[in-house]
Amino acid sequence: xxxxxxxxxxxxxxxxxxxxxxxxxxxxxxxxxxxxxxxxxxxxxxxxxxxxxxxxxxxxxxxxxxxxxxxxxxxxxxxxxxxxxxxxxxxxxxxxxxxxxxxxxxxxxxxxxxxxxxxxxxxxxxxxxxxxxxxxxxxxxxxxxxxxxxxxxxxxxxxxxxxxxxxxxxxxxxxxxxxxxxxxxxxxxxxxxxxxxxxxxxxxxxxxxxxxxxxxxxxxxxxxxxxxxxxxxxxxxxxxxxxxxxxxxxxxxxxxxxxxxxxxxxxxxxxxxxxxxxxxxxxxxxxxxxxxxxxxxxxxxxxxxxxxxxxxxxx
Amino acid sequence: xxxxxxxxxxxxxxxxxxxxxxxxxxxxxxxxxxxxxxxxxxxxxxxxxxxxxxxxxxxxxxxxxxxxxxxxxxxxxxxxxxxxxxxxxxxxxxxxxxxxxxxxxxxxxxxxxxxxxxxxxxxxxxxxxxxxxxxxxxxxxxxxxxxxxxxxxxxxxxxxxxxxxxxxxxxxxxxxxxxxxxxxxxxxxxxxxxxxxxxxxxxxxxxxxxxxxxxxxxxxxxxxxxxxxxxxxxxxxxxxxxxxxxxxxxxxxxxxxxxxxxxxxxxxxxxxxxxxxxxxxxxxxxxxxxxxxxxxxxxxxxxxxxxxxxxxxxxxxxx
Lengths: 315, 319
Prior knowledge:
The complex is a heterodimer of chains A (315) and B (319). Chain A is an all-alpha fold. In chain A, 52% of the residues lie in helices and 0% in strands. Chain A has helices at residues 11-21, 55-68, 71-84, 103-108, 112-115, 117-129, 137-146, 169-185, 189-204, 228-237, 244-259, 263-275, 294-304, 307-314. In chain A, helix 1 (11-21) runs antiparallel to helix 13 (294-304) and helix 10 packs across helix 11. Chain A is globular, with a radius of gyration of 19 Å. With 319 residues, chain B is α/β, with parallel strands linked by helices. Chain B is built from 14 helices and twelve strands. Chain B has helices spanning 7-15, 18-26, 49-60, 89-101, 119-125, 128-131, 135-138, 166-170, 201-204, 209-213, 216-226, 262-272, 281-287, 306-309; strands at 36-42, 69-74, 106-111, 139-141, 147-150, 162-165, 173-177, 179-183, 187-189, 230-241, 249-259, 299-303. Mean pLDDT of chain B is 89; it is low at 1-30. Classes of the chains: A mainly alpha (315), B alpha/beta (319). The A-B interface holds A 30-31, 43-44, 46-50, 52, 54, 56, 93-94, 96-97, 101-102, 133, 160-162, 164-166, 168, 170-171, 213-214, 216, 220-222, 227, 229, 261-265, 290, 292-293 and B 108, 115-118, 120-121, 124, 134, 136-141, 144-147, 149, 163, 166-167, 184-185, 202-207, 209-210, 212-213, 243, 245-247, 316-317.
C-alpha cells in the first residue's frame, strides 16, 4: 500500500496549465511561449520557446488529464497521438520525423481502451521487436567474426532512444514500465522475458556507488556517477525486484531526495521510491521547485495525484 | 523585414573558411589560400575585465551583426563543483553584451546537453541563472527546439540526413563558445566538437548515440558543414586537461581564442595545448586537404603569439 500523498497546493493550477497550453492540433509542446509551466512562476513575453506538439509531452499530458478526469482535453490529445502513429506501429518524437523511437513506450502506457486495442497491441509489438543495437544478431555476429570482446549488458537487451543505436537507462526504464503494465493486464511469456532481460540490463548498468546515470559505467574511461532522475526512473522500472543492488540504489535515491532541486528529478525519485514503498511519509521538497517543462507538470500530477495517477504507470 | 546577409557576403565568408577552401582544393587546382584570422587574447581570470576583452575581440575581427540574429552556443555538459567542465557563464554574458552592443537584432543563448535531460536545472547549477540576468528568457533548450531535416553541404558520416534545431539553423551567426578541453575519444573538444550540442536530444536521445554509431569524427565534420555562418570564441581562461571532457583537471591557460573559421581556431588551440592538430581526426576531415587552415602558414595570427601562451596539456589516451 502506498502512502497517500496530500494534494500539493498547485495541483489544480497545474491542470489549468495543461489545459491552457494544449495546441490547436490537440498535442502539447515541451514548453510554451509566454507562460510558465508552474503556477507560481512568471515568464517574460520575450521568452524564446517554441510551441509545436511533440509526442512525449502529449503522452504525459494525456495520462495526467485522464487521471484528473479531464476527458475532453485528453480525448483531443489522443487524437493528435493517433494522427502521429507510424506504419511500423511505433511513434516518432514529432510529426514529420520519419522514424519511430523510444516515445512509443510512453504511448504504450496509455490505456488500450483509450488508444484503441489494436493500435496499443502494435505499440507493444514494436517495443518487443526493438532492442539496443549491441544486442542485435547482426552486431553480435560481426563481433564474433572480428574476435571482439563482448560488451556489458549485451546478453540482456535493453532499449535504445532510436533504433540502430545502443540501449540506455532512460528508454529501457520506460519500455519496462509499459511492458510490465501490459503484462499485468494480459500476461505473456514473451513480454515477461523482455521485462526480465531489461531489468538485468538496468542492474548491469548501475553505477558503482549505486543509482544510475544515462547508462554509462565507464563511458569515457572513468567511474561515472549517478543522476537523480535516471535513478528514480530505473527504480520505478525495477518495482517488485528485491536485491542488494536495489537496496543500494534506494539509499542513493533517498539521499538525492534531500538535496534535489529539479522538478524532473524529484518526480522520478518520488515515483521510484514509491514503487518500492520507500518514499518518506508526507515528503515535501526542502526548497521551492521550478516546473520548467510541461512533462514535468504532467508527471508531478501523476505522481502526486494519488493512487489513480500512479496506476497509469503500473496498472 | 529582418536584414539578411547577401549572397555575395556569404560567398566571401564561405571562401574564407576551410569549407570553401576545401571545395576549391577539391577541384584539383592550386589556388592561393586566403589566410584565416585567429586572435589569441590574454584573459587572466573570470572577472569584469572580460567584458572589455570581448568587445575588443569582436572589433578586431570586424564582426558585423547589425540587424542580424546571433545564437551563442556555450558548452554545458555536467555540473561538478570546482570543475572546469562548462563554459564560464561570465564569458557567455560578456559575449551577449558585446554582440548586443554591435547592433545584433537578437542575441540568444542555446545549448542541448548530451547526458542530462533537465537542461535548465543544469544551467542553474552551473551558475548561468545567477550571472546572466533574465537567463531563462534568453535561453533556448536545443534538445527540445523544433527541428528541420537537412542534408549538410558536405557529408562525411553515413547519416543521410540530420534533424537540426531551427534556432541554430535560422541564426545569421552561430557562435561556438566551447571550453578548451582534452577529450577521451576525440583528443580535443573545441569549437567544432561543441556543435554536438546543437543536435537535438528530443530526436536523437540522451546521449545522442546515433551519431556515435555513425562515427563521432565524421559527424563533427558533418555538423561543421551544416553551419557555414559561424564565429568561435574558445574559453581557455581555465581549460581542462587529462581525462576530459568531464573528469579532467582544471588547466589555467589565461587566453581566449577567436575567429570566423572553426578549423583554424581549433588548430590554433591545439597548438596552444601542445597537441598536433593533424592528430585530431575531425580537423583533418573538415579541412579536407593538406593545404588547409590547419596549417599554421594559412592562419593569420593576431594578438599573442602561440609560443608565448602555449602550455602542455596532459593528454587523454586517445592521443
